[in-house]
Write a structure and sequence with these properties.
Elements lengths: L2 E5 L26 H10 L4 E5 L5 H11 L5 E6 L7 H12 L4 E4 L15 H13 L3 E3 L6 H10 L5 E3 L15 H8 L5 E5 L13 H15 L4 E3 L12 H11 L6 H16 L9
Parallel strand pairs: 1-2, 2-3, 3-4, 5-6, 6-7, 7-8
Helix pairs in contact: 5-6
Family: Belongs to the metallo-dependent hydrolases superfamily.
Pfam family, one: Amidohydro_2
Protein name: Amidohydrolase family protein
Length: 286
């Protein structure tokens, strides 16, 4: 079983809460919906996908859940909630989302917030502890500059089931490894944290990237997290700024070690996503 653990849908007609979705966004300034993704998955023999929020609103999360409720190949939705709200309000909001069979986790858009230390606000920490108590997955969307704060957060929120999206967006286009590499190694010491091998092509030179550009970065997260804690994600349609869906899959397949066999590839391309998001392909949906 193969799973794309990170992709997006959006529609320009549904609202103006997509801060990035302007005419200047190029190829992204279009609608991207399930019927467009399905043939791409089929060509790569990918059975299921996890849809991740793209706007910091509960309205978009509810729209995603409605859009995918009857789409069999979408196996989960990672939504958005404001974590900087009173604990009772947060708990009620989480409980409401958990009633939907395809809701599998939450992601605040940390990379876009003005306060790089937002994740360390006392109310946010309290609500993250509630998430950890529920063992509900948490997606971490950050740049390398946020990683020191993520480390502090993980030290304060014991056992949080979390995944670093897009390898924390290292500066691939300039080949800058440090301090990203050291910080990712420290984060990997938390056993409940995983890393998505996703979103890399848009951190490289969009028009002239080479496979070798990514090698030191992917090799590092493989050394840190191992085959058991890495998840493949296409980041479609964001990836289209630099590569097709097929090219993204081929890139990751070329970057894994030659020593990896079928077992390691099955973990990266599906089994780890199933375990992390607690996915159940056989369940019936409402």
């Amino acid at each position: 079983m193969r799973i794309d653990a990170h992709q997006h849908f959006w529609s320009r007609a549904r609202g103006n809460d997509y801060g990035f979705l302007t005419p200047d966004a190029g190829v992204l300034y279009n609608d991207y919906l399930p019927n467009q993704l399905e043939p791409l998955l089929g060509k790569q023999r990918i059975d299921y996908a996890v849809t991740v929020q793209a706007a910091p609103t509960i309205e978009e999360t509810e729209w995603l859940l409605a859009q995918t409720s009857d789409v069999d190949f979408i196996i989960g939705v990672v939504g958005w909630l404001d974590f900087d709200v009173p604990a009772d309000d947060f708990a009620r909001a989480v409980d409401s989302l958990c009633r939907h069979p395809k809701f599998v986790g939450l992601r605040p858009m940390l990379q876009d917030l003005e306060d790089d230390r937002w994740i360390l606000r006392p109310q946010v920490i309290a609500n993250l502890r509630h998430l950890a108590a529920l063992d509900l997955p948490f997606d971490i969307l950050v740049y390398p500059r946020h990683l020191p704060h993520i480390l502090q957060m993980l030290e304060q929120v014991d056992g949080l089931r979390a995944v670093v999206d897009h390898c924390a967006k290292p500066v691939i286009r300039r080949g800058i490894l440090e301090p990203w590499a050291e910080l990712m190694q420290k984060i990997s010491h938390f056993p409940a944290v995983r890393c998505k091998v996703s979103g890399l092509v848009t951190e490289a030179n969009l028009e002239h990237w080479k496979v070798s550009d990514f090698a030191p970065f992917v090799s590092h997260v493989i050394a840190c997290f191992g085959a058991d804690r890495l998840l493949f994600g296409s980041d479609w349609p964001v990836c289209l700024q630099a590569a097709s869906y097929d090219e993204v899959v081929a890139l990751v397949e070329r970057l894994v070690p030659d020593t990896w066999g079928e077992q390691e590839m099955e973990k990266l391309f599906g089994l780890n996503a199933m375990e992390f998001y607690k996915l159940n392909p056989g369940r019936e949906t409402d």
